[in-house]
Amino acid sequence: IATVDPETAAKLAALNYIGSARNRPAGALPNPRDEIGQLVAFRSALRMAPNERVTALRAMIEKNPEMIEAWSELGKTLTFMGRRDEAIAVYKSALGRTPLDSDIALSLGELELDQGRVDDAAKIAEASVSAAPHRARALLVHVAIARHDLATAQQIANVNANAPEAEPSDILLLAEIAIAAGDYAGALQQIDRAARLAAEQETPRVWHLEFLRADALARLGRIEDAKAAYRREIALFP
Questions:
Q1: pTM (2 decimals)?
Q2: Which domains does the chain have, with CATH numbers?
Q3: For position 36, what pLDDT does the model report?
Q4: Three-class SS of the chain
């Protein structure tokens, strides 16, 4: 959860379809005792089955509309359940009713892209670059791929991949671009590079790494190797 700077707040508020996005208002601090009770309830909700979790989180939001964590988890849960339109509505409501948060804004942007609203996703990503540069640039890469502008995608992805704080997921963006360009062997090289970085950083699991490997292998006609990679992805992320 990351409250944004005033510049980002102004940019996001200017996106009319989001609503009246705002930063935290001045006023009395919340009662710590109330916050502890809310935290206990929130942790309890996280242990529930998805349908029950949705009900519990909606009840928490009804009591405290500014509880960003509840909004964020509700959106994630609805997305996991395949209820993407509801998740989008939740994120939009959150941006209008809570202290403005870049994680929620970018989650909305990622869903907008998934739903084919590329321009809306681009606007959110561009507005969020100063607050959350890493994740915003990743969204911009996916926007550029969706627009078939692979040169722009490559340029943006290189910024993340070559940064001192680069993560394996940043290298995988380069693999996605290579697949989109039809360079499947090049994609495998980037996937191996991401795997090496994960080992160096002692990161045992990297989401989508084996999925992308399977995709590239299948496109190269290496079907058995692709099946094995798919099985590894499923084993790592059931």
A1: 0.83
A2: 1-147 (1.25.40.10), 150-238 (1.25.40)
A3: 80
A4: CCECCHHHHHHHHCCCCCCCCECCCCCCCCCHHHHHHHHHHHHHHHCCCHHHHHHHHHHHHHHCCCCHHHHHHHHHHHHHCCCHHHHHHHHHHHHHHCECEHHHHHHHHHHHHHCCCHHHHHHHHHHHCCCCHHHHHHHHHHHHHHCCCHHHHHHHHHHHHCCCCCCHHHHHHHHHHHHHCCCHHHHHHHHHHHHHHHHHCCCCCCCCHHHHHHHHHHHCCCHHHHHHHHHHHHHHCC
